[in-house]
Every structure is written in structure tokens, then in C-alpha cells.
Amino acid sequence: MSLVSKIVTARRRAHLNLGNGRSGRKGPRKTLRQRQTRVLLVMIALMVSFGASAVRLIQYGVRDPLATSDILPPDKLLASRPDILDRNGQLLATDIRTVSLFAEPNRIVDVDEAVEKLATVFPDLDRKTTYTKLSAKASRFAWLRRQLTPRQQSDILALGIPGVGFRPEKKRFYPGGPAAAHVLGYVDIDNRGVAGMERYLDQQGLLDLRAAGMTTDMPLEPVKLSIDLRVQSIVRDVVANAMVAYKAEAAGAVVLDVETGEIIAMASVPDFDPNQPSRTLADGSTDKEYEKGWFNRISNATFEMGSTFKSFTLAMGLDEGKITLNSVVDASRPIRMGGFTIKDFKGKNRALTIPEVFQYSSNIGTAAVADMVGIDRHKEFLTRLGLLSKLETEMPGVATPTQPRTWKKINSVTISFGHGVATTPLQTAVAAAALINGGNLVPPTFLPRSASQARDISKVVIKDQTSVDMRYLYSWNGLKGSGRSAQVAGFNVGGKTGTADKVINGRYASDMNFNAFVAAFPMDKPKYIVLSIIDAPRTGEHGGRTAASTAAPMIKSIIGRTAPLLGVEPRFGGPDLQYELADY
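The structure corresponding to this sequence follows.
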């Protein structure tokens, strides 16, 4: 190779080495720029992350906290339901503040631990259901327990379970417990009326106001009822004691103002405690017998009212002009009709005057009066008194009477003494009031009503003289007949017993009775009707189980204890005092 060639080759190699050297120096510079870019990206990411966290913290800060501190002070937390008062302003029902426990499952850290801790406060906790609720991470809200006691709330707070909190709520409270259970009814867990006057309030538009959110920012005027809590408590006590003493399936009573139609008291037992309607009976029972406590036998059930219906049959005969108090009917022998035999219980087997028909509760004599009037007029008279149609009143769930699809002569005869038509005890009391108040049928009410308001809506259903005669018959039976067991010295009690064979599965049970007594007092100027019922008593006063031995003594106890509270002054006289029957 020539010298020139060697020089050229050497230069080329030097040039190549120089190029490689420049390339090597560019590598580190490129790596530095990449690192700087990565640092910048990380800083940006951190800034975005911290910014998002700051925004979220601000949202949490301005959002209403879901904690016990969320409970508003008394002047800010308005009732979602109005207070219910008795006629004298005594509190029957009100709202109280409480809290309910909820969870945010997506914030629960340890589901098992949370369930175990909750079970220490709630021994009856359904662990499986609670575990399922807390495990639903997609859910952001779940109720765990509604309407906690203050002690339960305090215990939960002490456990410090993350993801659980409290929400303020309203709970309905009934200071009298079961005293007026069937009048007031009760509410569900969401404070909505389910039965009784609580349901009536919702039906009057309260439920719509709540749905529109208008019950949380406006005061609600208390609702006053016609009920007198003092009388109500006594009536409930009497019927509860009678059910136990007479070993009966059920009992009940109602007190009604004959002039205004106001219901002063109404009780039916078994009953329930509206503060805990789904848990126990008022006597603490928790078995299937509890279901009977929901059954209001005074207005929500119908019964064959037995011989109390003789009041209406004799009033019908008097009003139609078929009989007078001096009339005499033949009750010397049983009546045979359509394969049936109509006979008297302890019959006198002779002709009877109309007062004697009432006094001795003669089926034969009463049937004779119904036969004089006739089938069509008989049906029309009972319809006029409201005994064959559904009673109109504020109380929800009123039962509809039953009657034969086609009235035949045998139906008219048996209905005359209270078999073959089933009505509610309440409408029986309302119809009886019309017999002794001058002949005016006044719709019953659970709300206050004045005498003038009652006159505006009442209907004249019988003649004034018929009412005078019926007051005489009620008085006569109170002194001479089965009403003697209900007599209270000084208060001139009159009325009519009713002992009916109980209907079981469409058949009459000869060994079980449904007993009733409809009474009025004071008979010189009747102010109140009191009706008592007792279902299937197995014993009574002096061992008897008729109405005179069971339902009548209940009336005696109710009137004896409540008459002074109702402002009725006693009048005393001899045992054969003849009442002055006041004209209305």
C-alpha cells in the first residue's frame, strides 16, 4: 500500500472514530431530557390528584353531615303528624324525635367485624341479612335499624364503626298505651296512618301534604276528638276485666251522646299497644292470639244482636200504629212456621201486654208485632234506622251489615228478635239513640260536634210519641226486667238485654252465646247510650252466661264510674220510682 493510501485510510478511521465519539456524547443528553419529562408528568399527576382531593374535601365540608348532630333543635324540627287530643285537651298521640341507623356499604372496612359489633347492641340482629346489606359494595345506603332508643344510639357511637351513621326521624307516641287503641289506630315505621283515626287523618289530605314536603316546614294544628280520655280509660278497663272474669273470647263497649252523636268512648278487647303494634298484645302475649287484637268488634265487625232488636220491633209497631202500650198479644203457645218453632225462654204461656213482652223478652209476642206490620214495612223501618246499610262515620274499616237476599215471612219473624240480620254494635247503639232522643237519627262522629250542628244533619225517623213510649219501655225493663242487673242507684238506667246463640261457620251454637245490652241514662231525660257486648262467655254473675249475667253488669260498672265524670247528677227515690219522661 502506498503512503498516500495509508494516509487516506488513517484519516477515514479517525473520521469514523470522531463520529462515534459525537454519537456517544448525544446519548446522555437524551436520557436527561427524558428524565425531566417524566418528573414533570409526575408533578402534574400529583397536582391533579391533590386538586381532586381538595375538591372532594370541600364537597364533604359543605354537604349536610349524616350524624347525630344532624338532629335539629326542637324549634326547627316540626312534627310530620298533628297531635291528637281528647275533648278536654288531653294528649292522645304525638310525634317524638328519634334516630335510625343506616350504613354506607361502600365505606365499610370489615364487614364481619361490623356485624359482630352491631350484634352486641342488637341481640336479635339478623346477621345473615345484615351481612348481605353491608357486603353490597355497589350500594351507598342501607337501613340497619329504625327508631333507636337513646341507649342504643349511645352504644353504637361507642363502637366507632366506620361507614355507619344516624338519621333523625319522627316516631309516633301514644301516652295512654292501649287505652284508646281501636279509636286512634296506629302508624307504620314511616309514620303513615294504618288504622283508626290515624288513617282517617291521612285520608283527609295529610298523606298528600307529606308527599309534597309541606309537613316539615309548617306547624300542624292539633286534632281534637270527641273521646273523653277519662271515660275511655274506664270503659277499656271494664271490658278488659269482664273478658277475664267471664272467661270470654272478647268484649267491648261504646258510650254515645244521644243528642250530638259524639262517641265519648269506644273499646274492644283483645286490643294492642299502638306504641308497638307489631310486637305484643296489651297483656304481653306474642303468639297467634295477637291477631285478634286488631279486630275492633264495635265498628269493624257485625253480629246478630239478639233481643236488643226487640227495641226496634216494638218501636216499629208503635210508630206504625199497630200497637199501643196498652195492647195485648197472645204468647200462650209457640209459633210453628216453615219447619221452625218460635218459643220463649222461660215463657209465661199467656197473653202479654206490650210492656210485658219487653220485660219478659218474649219472642212470640215480638214476632206477633212484626207480623202485624208486614215484611215490606219491617224492612223499610230497619233501613230507615240505618241498620241495614253501612254506617257512615270517620272511622275507616266499618263493616257492612248482612241480611237475607230475599225477605220471607220467616225472615221477618226471626229478625224481629235479632236473628237473621247482622249489624255492627256501633250502629245498633246509634239506632237505639234515635228511639229515646225524640226520634232523631244522628250520624255518629269521633270529632267534636255541637247540638245545633247535630240538628242540622239529623233525620227524623220515628214520631215523638213513639220515642216517649220507648223511653217508658226502657225504664220499665230497667226496673222490672232484665235491666235490673244494670241499674245504678240514682242514675235511672233503662235498656234491653240481648242473648243470641253464636253463629259459628254458618250454624248456631247452642252452647255459646253472643251477649249484648243497650242502655240509656238517665231515663227521665236520656243523655247517653251505653252498649256492651261480650263474646262467648263461659260464666257470669251467679254462674249464668246470659246477657243479664254478663253484659248488663258491665253497663252497671261503666255507668257507675263514668256518670259523675259526664256531669250527670244522681236522683234518688224509692225502688218503684216512676220516671218523668221528658218531651224533646
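Residues 18-25, 64-78, 286-290, 575-584 have pLDDT under 50 and may be disordered.
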